[in-house]
Amino acid sequence: MSELQKALGGRIGELRKNLQMTQSDLAKALGVSSAQIVSQIEQGRREISAWELARLAKVFRTTASALLDIREPELQPEILWRKVPDQEALKKADFLKRCREYFELEQYTETSTPYEEFPKIKIDFQKADFARINQVAETISMRFTLGAKPALVLEKTLEERFGVKVWYMDLGMDGSAAATVGSFGPAILMNSREAPWRRNYNFAHEVFHLVTWESSDPETLRTDHALFEKVERFANTFASYLLLPGDALTNAVNRRLRKATITYTDLIEIAREFAVSTEALVYRLRSLNHLDKKTVDQILRDPKFREMDRATMHDSWWDPPKLPERFVRLAFIAYKKEKITRSRLSQYLNKSLLDLNDFLLSYGLDEKEDYQTKMRIT
């Protein structure tokens, strides 16, 4: 056997284990008849055909050229999950692959350098209290300049100003969200199944993890349950402060007060106005001393309030696009600038060449249009 064949086999075995796949799993995904064939490949005793290499690259969420690069592989970034999903290894591989592709497209389109530097704040989680977390939230709120209704612009601010890679994935009914930082920069993974107001809250929650990323590594938080729970409470407090600014929220409440009282309808309307859940709203009103604990508990236990809340949800519901609009736009620009081929464009967008134009049109992009017209700016 050649040294290259042996090294490639070892690399395949390592990637398989990283995805928590058995040799039988890989045989099935590769389309070969038995686990014994996979064993022979991993031992370097069987040559790999071109189509098998392409299939392996797809299974491992990488490229054929990366598979053939037998240098010491780059350490994979850690991911901090709100709740570890089923098939974690596969979801992690998918997410990191998309982050790397996102970064590639930024480089092709020369959009990676104009970003503002994402803010980082060091916190001693063991000694910090909620007053400190509110200070951090205020600092980030001023830095991001999100206005009176932060949830409405937070995602776009993260993407367009700070180059945060945002991706949506089905994480299951009990999945939540995740954050990571790699050579591609900061990134957030959202659960596409969750309600829009829940996703908004998760964005703010994950921003806290990105801002404090250097305060504790994800592996420590994963293994230290007590510390993880404490940091999660901090992240929730940060999210509430960021999405529901005190002055703006107080003004919204005061506009609806009648003889020092407010109705359930008013509370639901305010939650929709700020694009947060009613639960997040009433807890924030509690922290601002607009409601006492007894009243908050009474509201959240009242079936009438829950039913009124559910009845208005469909009016504010929206599903995220299959692929992030910015990612599709960058891929399209790279193609129009002739940085990538049409075939490569279809791979980025996970569409066949036959369906590609219709898919682009659904995002308002037309292959036939000339986007390269130049004009003089004075």
Q: What's the helix and strand layout?
A:
Blueprint: H1 3-18, H2 23-30, H3 35-42, H4 50-59, H5 64-68, E1 79-81, H6 88-108, H7 130-144, H8 154-162, E2 165-169, E3 177-182, E4 185-191, H9 196-211, H10 218-223, H11 225-243, H12 246-254, H13 264-274, H14 278-287, H15 293-301, H16 303-316, H17 325-336, H18 342-349, H19 356-362
Parallel strand pairs: 2-4
Antiparallel strand pairs: 1-3, 3-4
Helix pairs in contact: 1-3, 2-3, 6-17, 7-11, 9-11, 13-14, 13-16, 14-15, 17-18
> How many structural domains?
4
pLDDT averaged over residues: 90
Rg, alpha carbons: 24 Å
Measured as a percent range, the helix fraction is 55-70%
The count of DSSP E runs of length 2 or more, i.e. the number of strands, is 4
Based on the coordinates given, report the CATH architecture of the largest domain. Answer: Orthogonal Bundle
Global structural class = mainly alpha
Order of helices and strands: HHHHHEHHHEEEHHHHHHHHHHH
Distance between the termini: 65 Å
Number of helices: 19
Global morphology: globular
Q: Strand content of the residues, in percent? A: 5-15%
Query: Largest beta sheet: what is the strand line-up?
Result: 1-3-4-2
> In this structure, how is the largest beta sheet organized?
4 strands, mixed
Low-confidence stretches: none
What is the CATH C-level name of the largest domain?
Mainly Alpha
Describe this protein's structure.
With 378 residues, the protein is mainly α. It folds into 4 domains: 3-68, 434 Repressor (Amino-terminal Domain) (Orthogonal Bundle); 79-243, Arc Repressor Mutant, subunit A (Orthogonal Bundle), CATH 1.10.10; 246-316, no CATH class; 321-378, no CATH class. It contains 19 helices and 4 strands. Helix 6 (88-108) crosses helix 17, helix 7 (130-144) packs across helix 11 (225-243) and helix 14 (278-287) packs antiparallel against helix 15 (293-301). The longest helix is centred in the first third of the chain and has 21 residues, at 88-108. It starts with a helix and ends in a 16-residue tail after the last helix. 29% of the residues are buried.
